[in-house]
Amino acid sequence: MHPADRKRLKYLDPKRVEQTEYHSRRLAKMGVPASEVLDALAENGMPAVDYREAAGIVNRCYHEIRDAEAAVLEELFRAEHDSPTLTATLHRFTLALRSYAKADQARLWFPFEVPANLRRGMCFPPKAADKRLLDPSWNVATCWSVPLGKQGVLQLGFSKHYPWLHREKELLNIAADRCLAAAAKARLVDDLSEREAEVRRLSQRMMHIEEVERRRISQEIHDETGQSLLCIRLNLEMLEMVASEDDEMRVRLRATRHLAERTVDEIRRIIAALNPEAIEKLGLAAALRQLATRFRNVAAAAVRVDVGALPELPDRLPLVVYRLAQECLSNAAKHAEAKTVKVSVDAADKVLRLRIQDDGKGFDLSQAMAKPGTFGLSGMQERVSLLGGQMKIESRLRNPAARSRSRGGTAIKIELPIGTTHAHDSTVAC
Q1: Among positive and negative, which fits the CA dihedral 324, 409, 363, 332?
Q2: Could you please report the per-residue DSSP string of 268-293?
Q3: Residue 332: what pLDDT?
Q4: Which residues are 365's β-sheet partners?
Q5: Each residue's pLDDT tens digit, 175-201
Q6: Residues forming beta bridges with residue 342, ordered by sequence position
Q7: pTM value?
């Protein structure tokens, strides 16, 4: 123990409790081990009764200092992990350190280009126009200044002369490191968010390009293939009319004309699937009912469509809802073996809800998602996530031994926000 520290031990008189507590805490903050203090007390020849009382005060004060340090470090940890933004994190850091040091003023400058005269930690009494004091409005007798590398500065102000001690300086350096770590983490999160936003924009752009290409293909099919098939059908009908009644050629022409008519109907179905014009002309409800009608023709299943009162929807949202319903019905037609399908759409609290439920044979969700080369469900989830929505899939495998077919089935619930907002911000003063 340093001789100067030993001089303070004369104040460790249990009869003067306040002075004993003050100097015990001071020695603790100076980093003097409690065992050395107790050994020095024993060497002073203090009576056993007084020694035990003084030792109790020393141990209690040392524990209080350790508890205060642990509490502020825990608060720094919580601030870093609980705060939604870097600004909020630094604000909580500043409040915690101000409370720990019992400072009258506290401020953290970040990000901030640290001047050369503040690139090391220091405790100083500010003089008139002292450039080391970053906030000239402070009327303080002592300032603690701790650099955050070259990126920022933390300063604490005290109305009285209050030099910092070893453990206080160490804790503030630890806090500075935590601030830098939190800033680095926030930058990584921001970079990741920017990348995710860029991926989201690219995905939305790809979806837009996909819809434009669908419309182009449907238009070309309509203008070229569709018109050509109609001409072929018309020519076949004319040839059929001039052929003799018993002529085998007339029979063949009639069969070919029927094939052409079925092909025209199929072409019209494909065009309607590629480019649902009913959304723009008649609205989402009518487009979903047309989709249900086409599903009945393909899957021979009963479809019920319920569309509640909907507010005005953003431009692309009705088309996304339509595509999601289209994919669900397509999956039901191909795999579900369902007898009935229910499609419902409603909106409340700025959220649009789409639900498709069938009484089919169901499927194992984990296996379906893990199956290579299938993109139906994952594509739906991608569309939903791009709009900030949620999709939940519930499916029960049908029990072949059960009497009722309704024991199996699949329900897909999708929620899409009708409107969203975002915010962000950063420098801190307390």
Answers
A1: negative
A2: HHHHHHH--HHHHHT-HHHHHHHHHH
A3: 83
A4: none
A5: 999 988 888 888 888 888 788 777 777
A6: 304, 357
A7: 0.53
Which residues on adjacent β-strands are paired with residue 357? 342, 411
Q: Is the pLDDT of residue 141 over 60?
A: yes
Distances in Å between the Cα of 117 and the Cα atoms of 120, 122, 155, 375, 428 are 8, 10, 14, 60, 21
152-158, strands of its sheet edge to edge = 122-124, 142-148, 152-158, 105-109, 428-429
Distances (CA, A) of 36 to 32, 131, 133: 7, 41, 38
Which DSSP category does 159 fall into? S
Backbone angles phi, psi at 9, to 5 degrees: -70, -20
CA neighbours closer than 13 Å in the CB half-sphere of residue 277: 9
The encoded tokens of residue 73 equal 């470090």
Which pairs count as long-range contacts for 92-97, CB under 8 Å and 24+ apart, including other chains? Answer: 93/175, 93/178, 93/179, 93/182, 93/428, 94/154, 94/428, 94/429, 94/430, 95/430, 96/72, 97/72, 97/154, 97/156, 97/172, 97/175
What confidence tens digit (pLDDT) does each residue in 359-387 have?
A: 888 887 777 766 665 556 777 888 888 78
The CA–CA distances, whole Å, from 25 to 28, 34, 70, 388 equal 5, 10, 15, 54
H helix count then E strand count, the chain: 13, 10
Q: Is the pLDDT of residue 429 over 60?
A: no
Please give the mean pLDDT across all residues of the chain.
82
Residue 11 has pLDDT above 60, yes or no: no
